[in-house]
Design a protein that fits this description.
Blueprint (H helix, E strand, L loop, with lengths): L1 E3 L7 E7 L10 H9 L3 E5 L11 E2 L5 H20 L4 E10 L1 H12 L3 E7 L14 E6 L3 H11 L21 E6 L11 H15 L11 H19 L14 H19 L12 H21 L9 H22 L10 H21 L7 H21 L1 H4 L2 H26 L2 H19 L3 E2 L2
Parallel strand pairs: 2-3, 2-5, 4-9, 5-6, 6-7, 7-8
Antiparallel strand pairs: 1-3
């Protein structure tokens, strides 16, 4: 748990802040800083199985009395710690995003010590006309379904309620409001200054306070920092030794076979395989999917006389270090946990067994970044489509993969770009493949929640 508190402030209410699935307390820092600067005592924590919390998630993720109930108990323990913290005046509010929105709504209903609730990108079936007390629901403008759900929940208390209008009386505990962060989606809402102001104003109304202090505006600078690290990779790649060997060119027929066959066969084959072997939620399936997909692709490429060839190890390790240490270090400080605790290192290693052949095959299919743009796009789109097909074939077991697919898209966009720079410079597709395989394994191993069934 991280505590944000003015060093010599008067006593104030506590705000317990919870992150969403596969997130960590860093992801909520804009809210933590904004509310702490307004005088609140803020406690942000990593749920079990997330970030640097060494205790894995457990229970049945499909049942309210399973994992949800255990995460509620954990939230309750943080509330206990918050109310015992020096400088807290005995009052507490909850704020949570996405998965945590349901957790905090249910906890606020069950725990009468909670005076106000801020649910960001909320999906919860627990809201009633009167509970939880003082509920603010914040959605991103581009979250159409969640916006409709937010308004529907507010209308439980007042059927004529409209978006952006407060119903009830926050000072009496009966307040309800559906607010919108303009121009943002599920992640952008965590950095929206409008959403941050809505949260601060709502808590002030609930606690009878008038707050001041700056609202965090870190979203833009964080994007610029990460973009700068990516862009800086291009001139640095020009310092690598130039390769003289041209990567093997794939005929159109070979390309289509190597792209289409693994994407079709892998999800069908794994539909009948029990892939639960790692203490981490659905990442074990993803590791096996990567392995089968990559091995099938490499076998097909070898059949077409396209082989891995020599690996330029210095460029490979340099790109991996740039992705994991430099880009990952910025992510860990400003976005979400990227440095693994000891328990995650074997998970990263196990995922690398699958990620390396998959990314090596990807580097050969894309000719080390020299293939036509449409081919690079088609190769990555086929892999993502294969994950979508896997979810469709076994939705109950793999529905959490839907949450991670946008991360895979982002990975290909960012690291695929840098891998192309290295591959074109060195003439070694395998160098880019090794680097991307190590980086992908690291990213999955540190972000998926650790999980112990039972």
């Amino acid at each position: 748990m991280t505590v944000y508190q003015r060093p010599a402030g008067a006593t104030a209410p506590a705000v317990v802040i919870a992150h969403g699935f596969a997130g960590s307390r860093q992801l909520m820092e804009a809210y933590s800083l904004t509310l702490a600067r307004a005088g609140y005592v803020v406690m942000a924590f990593d749920f079990e199985g997330h970030g640097r919390n060494p205790t894995p998630m457990s229970g049945d993720v499909t049942r309210i009395d399973g994992t949800t109930r255990l995460l509620m108990r954990e939230t309750g323990r943080v509330i206990d710690a918050a109310l015992a913290w020096p400088g807290v005046d005995g009052r507490v509010a909850l704020l949570g995003h996405s998965m945590a929105s349901d957790i905090i709504v249910r906890q606020a209903i069950a725990d009468r010590r909670v005076s106000a609730t801020v649910a960001i990108s909320m999906f919860s079936e627990a809201v009633t006309a009167t509970d939880p007390p003082n509920l603010l629901i914040v959605s991103g403008e581009w979250e159409a379904t969640l916006r409709q759900n937010a308004l529907r929940n507010v209308r439980l208390a007042e059927p004529s309620a409209v978006e952006g209008a407060t119903v009830g009386d926050p000072s009496a505990g009966t307040g309800r409001r559906a607010a919108v962060g303009p121009g943002v989606e599920h992640v952008g809402v965590l950095y929206s200054t409008t959403a941050l102001q809505e949260a601060r104003t709502w808590l002030d109304a609930a606690f009878g306070r008038v707050s001041s202090g700056p609202v965090s505006a870190s979203g833009g600078p964080i994007v610029l920092l990460l973009l700068g690290i990516v862009v800086l990779g291009w001139p640095l790649s020009r310092l690598l030794p130039r390769g003289e060997i041209e990567p093997s060119r794939l005929s159109l027929r070979t390309f289509l076979i190597v792209v289409a066959l693994p994407a079709t066969v892998t999800p069908v084959l794994l539909r009948f395989v029990d892939t639960r072997f790692l203490p981490v939620l659905v990442a074990d399936y993803l590791a096996v999917h990567l392995f089968v997909y990559g091995v099938l692709s490499l076998v097909l490429l070898a059949w077409c006389r396209i082989r891995i060839g020599p690996i330029a190890w210095i460029p490979a390790l340099a790109l991996a270090a740039w992705g994991i240490v430099v880009f990952g270090g910025a992510l860990d400080r400003y976005v979400a946990s990227f440095w693994p605790i000891a328990a995650r290192l074997p998970i990263v290693a196990a995922i690398a067994v699958g990620a390396l052949p998959c990314m090596l095959a990807d580097s050969l299919v894309t000719e080390g970044g020299r293939a036509a743009l449409w081919r690079r796009f088609a190769a990555r789109a086929a892999f993502i489509a294969s994950l979508g097909a896997a979810v469709a074939l076994d939705f109950q077991r793999l529905f959490f993969l839907l949450i991670i697919i946008p991360v895979i898209v982002l990975f290909f966009t960012i690291f695929g770009l840098m891998g192309g720079w290295v591959g074109r410079r060195t003439g070694s597709p395998a160098a880019a493949g090794v680097a991307l395989g190590l980086t992908l394994a690291w990213a999955i191993g540190v972000s998926f929640p650790m999980f112990a069934p039972g």
